[in-house]
Amino acid sequence: METGKIVSGKEAAAAIQDGSTIVVCGCENILLPDYLLQRLEERFLETGHPCGLTEIHTVIHGMGPGLGLEHFAHEGMTSRVIGSGYSFLKTSQMSALIRENRIPAYIMPMGTVFQMLDNVASGETYTYSKVGIGTFVDSAVEGGCMNDCAENTLCWHETVCGEDMLCYKNEKIDAAILRGTTADEFGNISLEKEPMTLGVKAAAMAAKASGGKVIVQVERIVKRGTIDPQKVMIPGIMVDMVVLDENQPASGGGMNPALTGEIRIPVSALEPLPLDITKVISRRAAREIAKKNAVVNLGVGIPVNIPMIQVEQQSDQETIFFPEHGAIGGVPAGRAIFGTNINPEAIIDSTEVFRFYRGGGLTQSFLGFGEIDQYGNVNVSKFNGIIPGCGGFIDIAHRTPKLVFCGSFTAGGAEIVVENGRLVIRKEGKYRKLVEKVEQITLNGQEALRKNQDVTYITERAVFKLTAQGLELTEIAPGVDMQKDVIDLIPFPIVVHSPVEMDADLFR
Fold first, then answer.
1. CA 237 to chain centre
2. How many other C-beta atoms are found inside a 10 Å radius of the C-beta of residue 415?
3. CA–CA separation, 441 and 470 (whole Å)
4. Would you call 448 helix, strand, or coil by DSSP?
5. Fewer Cβ close by (within 10 Å): the C or N end of the chain?
6. How many whole angstroms separate alpha carbon 478 and alpha carbon 422?
7. 3-state DSSP of 349-373
8. Catalytic sites, residue numbers
9. Cβ contacts of residue 124 below 8 Å, gap of 6+?
10. What is the pLDDT of residues 164-179, one digit of tens each?
């Protein structure tokens, strides 16, 4: 019986050397190798090793106290973090260390991180990308630096065949900490109980090309040769260690079988959305899906409600929802398991997703916003002391011809209700989300205009379009005073020609 690769979590943690660069998989609490990360943290707290780590993640892994990236939230243990995002939770210890300038933190667009792993696996020295030019990841803007102690050295501009590109020096990967469902005795790994694969094969190949180690956490181990070869996601030749966690939680909890495609459930049984401003925005946004078989990406926040609007209204059921984590078709699940689809028709790897996006494969994208400014710039990555980063936002927006941003007009204690087909503003929010200058540029509005992208901003009380002259007010909600409730709350001039009233059916 071949069991040489099967080790304990403690033995796996001991294999990580001081100064290592580690790539970790996971999307919040999905595909999260948390058992392994716990053992790594325990070793550091007991011995002070491994120390001086560079942690790289494609997607923020772990969402909650003591989960995922939080295991690296120790000065001395971690010397640098690089990823597409960080926790938006105020309880996050890693976010606190970043805000306090105790660990340098960088952001790269999610697709660029996957592209870099592919290139490391191929032995390439550099990664070139047009994605993010003019945004905060651009070295001419902020260089992806998320705090003052981070130096603007992550990328720079290069001219390649006459085209302006961002250039990144590829990182040598000393260890990949990954997760699967099943391992055989040789280390072949399948992910049959996971609703996404998140580039684990690319990460494993990058580590092997760098002379590093690949460590995979699984929930069960079987005899060699008993896994269907077409289901092997990471071949055993790429795996150094397998760690068994018999209590590995199912990604997506009780919804897991409907997320992986094992079963299909009737979406009509899902809970309808309550009638509030979120539903109003979602309803109005859903009307922007103009063509049959549109291939649509939905961002975090209000956009994830759009499929439920279609279910409730029994409207165009032929929309193909395609989140960046690989599920195609079906109905995107809720915020707690963002990035998964209920009843997917196909699931592909994230590396393939972003190649499709960069090629212009999406029809349109619905994204959230934290701030919007007079140039049409959008900020979702850093505001009010929160540093969630960009995730796949910059990649998604890069070549999508139609972009729709969804969010409330103000935030922070607003009391706004929907009554009798009208909007009633009882108390205004503390924070204005239309600002003179965004804190960080996650979408460059002028770049979007240059690329002839159609950009719309939808709030509960007004709809705006991005034009060469600035933001144009095109619709106003019934019950809203256009001057007092909209124009007077915007600290920059907007274009006002002849806005129409939003359809009263949205408010019923």
1. 30
2. 10
3. 16
4. helix
5. N
6. 5
7. CHHHHHHHHHCCCCCEEEEECCEEC
8. 324
9. 170
10. 999 999 999 999 999 9
